[in-house]
Hints:
The complex is a heterodimer. Chain A has a single domain (about 1-50), classed as 434 Repressor (Amino-terminal Domain) (Orthogonal Bundle), CATH 1.10.260.40. Chain A has four helices and two strands; from the N terminus they run E-H-H-H-H-E. Chain A has helices spanning about 5-10, 15-25, 25-35, 40-50; strands spanning about 1-5, 60. In chain A, helix 2 (about 15-25) packs across helix 3 (about 25-35). By secondary structure, chain B is an all-alpha fold. Chain B is built from eight helices and no strands. Chain B has helices at about 5-20, 30-60, 65-75, 75-90, 95-125, 130-135, 135-140, 140-155. The radius of gyration of chain B is 19 Å and the shape is flat.
Amino acid sequence: MTNRLKVLRAERSWSQADLARHLGVSRQTINAIETEKYDPSLPLALKVARLFAQPVEQIFYLDGQT
Amino acid sequence: MSLMHLARRLNSAIGDAKRAGNEAGAAIEHTNKYYGLRLLRAGLFWISTYAMSRGLLALWPDTERSVRVLIALAPVPLFLWFLWIWMKGVVAMDELQRRIELEALAFAFPTCVVILMTLGLLELAVPLNPDDWSYRHLWAMMPALYYAGLWRAKRKYE
């Protein structure tokens, strides 16, 4: 799954550690999501969407979609 | 460094990690560190008791059987304390950390099974020296395989 997490994080000038603290997860988790080595669970994806005030489909895409 | 000094430093580090983890907006890494240090402390107590038990059993070969059994079982309550802290630490982990733990165990458990099974068959095929292949030697392979699985899983998500 592709995502725009890094872009959204950069728009707010947050480090991975900052974003991890906001979401209550480890920096390792944020890095793994951004590098697309790990797909977040639904609750975490919804937390991300709420944090960035965007629909979850505009942050996470299945491969091949935009 | 004496054991008492080490214990004091560990207790102090555990207190610091707990306070850091309790602060609002604290990174989950502080909580991980808190449980990691508690696990280290419990593990040191457990291993020390295990070493004492082994030493006493070697030193007192002619002691009454019931006393020897009690000495052999002495590390078990400390291991249960270690296990309790480990479980609490796993519950406090985030979802990726828990997946890493799962993948580590998914590697270690079947690998242990196949090694023990193979040793069981080898025991029937050839004489295995009990001074090299007894339970007290084989158990250490299990945490070693778990750490190998953990290393492998952590690398996968870096």
